[in-house]
Structures are given as structure tokens and as C-alpha cells.
Design goal:
Layout: E1 3-7, H1 12-24, H2 34-42, E2 48-52, H3 56-69, E3 80-83, H4 87-96, E4 102-105
Parallel strand pairs: 1-2, 3-4
């Protein structure tokens, strides 16, 4: 299943996600431009396109700390949990709209 990652964060975490995905299937280079992303998906060049926003690692770590400290009760918002090797299943739940908040655990 070909995919593309647009990494606007360029953090250790975002690079790790991209590297993991590259082990799962063929990665396709797509320019970080709206038209290029649309074309890649519309033409079937990629089956999915992940855009990692700037600030992803910082926000992810801040959210993890709030959950760890008890400031956020994750059980009230998390609808699905998957292990990292179940990424494809997690992705399918996300795109189907079946999950409110999907968590991928190490």
C-alpha cells in the first residue's frame, strides 16, 4: 500500500513515525503543496497521505504529560487503542469515522 508523509514538524517523533511506516510499505515522495497532495491521492499514486503538522512532537508530549499527571482522563475520550504494529487497523478506524480518539501505543 503506497503512502506519503508530509513532515512539517521534522522532529525525532515525526521522523520515527515516517521510518516505521516506511518499514510497512512503499513510501512515495510528494511535494508539500496542496495540488500535489490532491493529485497523489486522486490518481491513486498513494493510498494514504499523512501530514504531520508543525509542533506535533511538542503537542504530543504535552498531551502525554497531561494524561500521565491525571489532568486529562483519557478513558473518557479514547474510543480505540492499538499497538504500533496494528497501525493499519488504527488507520482504518480513523478514516471510517468509527473512532472519536484513536491511540497508538508502543
Amino acid at each position: 500500500m503506497p503512502f506519503a508523509v508530509i513532515d512539517r514538524d521534522d522532529s525525532e517523533l515525526s521522523r520515527s513515525v515516517a521510518a516505521f511506516l516506511a518499514e510497512q510499505g512503499p513510501s512515495v515522495g510528494v511535494a508539500d503543496e496542496a495540488r500535489a497532495c490532491q493529485d497523489a491521492v486522486a490518481t491513486g499514486e498513494v493510498d494514504y497521505l499523512l501530514i504531520v503538522p508543525a509542533g506535533f512532537q511538542e503537542d504530543y508530549l504535552a498531551a502525554a504529560e497531561m494524561i500521565k499527571s491525571g489532568k486529562i482522563d483519557a478513558d473518557k475520550i479514547v474510543t480505540h487503542k492499538f499497538k504500533i504494529d496494528e497501525f493499519q487497523k488504527a488507520y482504518e478506524v480513523c478514516v471510517s469515522g468509527a473512532g472519536l480518539k484513536v491511540v497508538i501505543e508502543p
